[in-house]
Amino acid sequence: MEALDIARWQFGITTVYHFIFVPLTIGLSFLVAIMHTKAVRSKDAVTKDAWTRLTKFFGGMLIINFGIGIATGIVQEFQFGMNWSEYSRYVGDIFGAPLALEGLLAFFLESVFLGLWIFGWNRMNEKLHLMTIWMVAIGTMLSAYFIIAANSFMQHPVGAVFNPETGRAEMDPGQGSLWSVLTNVTTLAAFPHVIFGAWLTAAAFVVGVAAWHLVKHHNTARELGVDSAEGAQHRTLAQTIFRPVLRFGVLMMVISGIGLVVTGDLQAKIMFQQQPMKMASAEALCETTEGAAFSILTVGGPDAFATDCDGVTHLIEVPYVTSILATNDPNATLQGVEDLQAQYKAEFGETVTDIYGNEVEADYRPNLFVTYWSFRLMIGLAVFSAILAVWAFWVTRGKGDQARTTGSKAFKWFAVLAIPMPFLANAAGWVFTEMGRQPWVVHPNPDDPTVRLMTVQGVSNHEPMVVLVSLIAFTLIYGVLAVIWFELMRKAALKGIPLPRKREESQKLDTPTISFGY
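and the corresponding C-alpha cells:
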C-alpha cells in the first residue's frame, strides 16, 4: 500500500471512531438541558424530584461521552499537519480559521460551563446553574457549526482565490473572506441536518435506556405485588420517572425525524448542483437519464463489490423519484457517471501530477459500491428509530390514571437494539459525504473551479511505513478506549435511579460526584 492509501484509512478510521461520540454529546447535552429546565420550572415537588434525578442520571453519561470525545477529537487536527501537510499548505489560510474558532470559542465554552454544571449542584443559584448546562448545549452546537463550515469549504470552496505565485488558496476579501466561509450555502444546509441527526441519536439513546428500566421496574412491581411497599416503589419509578422521559424521548425522535427528512431533501438538491458525480454514484446512475428512477437495489456485474459502472444492473427501482429529489421535476434529465467522467477529463485533464511528481491517470469517479450503499445505510437504518418511536408511544399511551407502562421483554430488547442504529446511520452519512467527494479533497466550485485539490496532491510525502505504524498505534489505543467507554456507559446506564426516598429526604437532593455515576 502507498502512503496515500494508509493515510486515507487512518483518517477514515479515526474520524468514524471519533464521530461515535460527537452526535451523542451534541444531542444529549440539549436533551439534558431540557430535562434540567423541566426540573427547575416544576412547581410540584414529586415532579421536580423526578426530573432532577433524570437530569443527573443522563448527565452522568453525557460526562463520560464528552471526556472520551475530547481524547479522540484532538487526533483529528494533528493529522492535517502530519499526514495531509500538502493539503494544509494549500488551504491552511481558509480551513484553519473555522477550526481555530471551534477550539478557542466553542470548545472552551462547553468545557468551562460543563465543569460549572458538574460542581454547581446545591452551590449555585438554581436558575444560574440551569444556564450553565444550556451554555454547554449551545457550545456543542457552535462546535459542530465551525467544524461543518470547515468541511463544507472542502465540499464547496467559497471566499477564496488561487494564487499562482504561491500555489495556494488564499482568502479573497472581495468575496467577504471568512464570512463567506461561515455562511457557505453548503454549511447552512448541512448544519441543521447534522444537528437533527445528533438529536435523533440522543433521543434513541434516552428511549432505549428508559425502556430498559421501565420494563424492569414494571415487571418487578408485578412480581412483588403493587400493593406491597417495595412493589409500589418500583411501580412509581416506572410510572412517574421512566415513562415521562421515554415519551419525551419519543417526541424528540419525531421532531428529529421530520427535521432530517426536510434538511436531507434540501441537501440532496444542493449536492445535485454542486457535486453531480457524488449524487449520480449514490444512485448508480451510470448513463444520463431523463426522469431518473430511485434505485432500491442495484448490483454490479460479475463482481458484487464493483467500484465502477461495469455491469451495473438495477433490480428494483421507483420511477422518477431521483429526478424529483434533484429538481422537483419528475422528467428532469440527470447526468450519469460516465458522461460526467468524460466532462471532468475534458475540463480538468486526463492526468494529474501527484506529490511525487508522477503523472497518473485521473479518475473522477468515486468508489461506486461504497457511495451507493453508504447512502442507503444512512437512510435505511432510520427505520429502527421509526419503529421504536411508534412502539414506545403505543405501549405508554393513556393519561392520568389510564397512563400505561409495559412489561414486554420484546419491546425492551428492541429498544436496546435500536440504540446503535442512529450512530451507524450518522457514520454511514459521513462515509457517503467524504467518499462521494473523491478523488477531490477540495471539490471544485462549479461557478469558480480554480480552487481545487485532488487527494493524490494533498497527502504528505511520507514513507508508507511511517503512516502504517501510527495507524496501528491509534487503532490499538482506540480499541482500548472503546472498551473503557462502553463499560463506563453500560455501568452508568444499568445503575438506573434509586428507589424513591422519603419526602423529607427528597427536599435536599444529593450533589453528583465526579465518579460518572450519580
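(Above: one complete record from the training split.) Strands lie at 160-163, 168-171, 289-290, 294-299, 313-318, 333-334, 351-353, 359-361, 440-442, 453-454.
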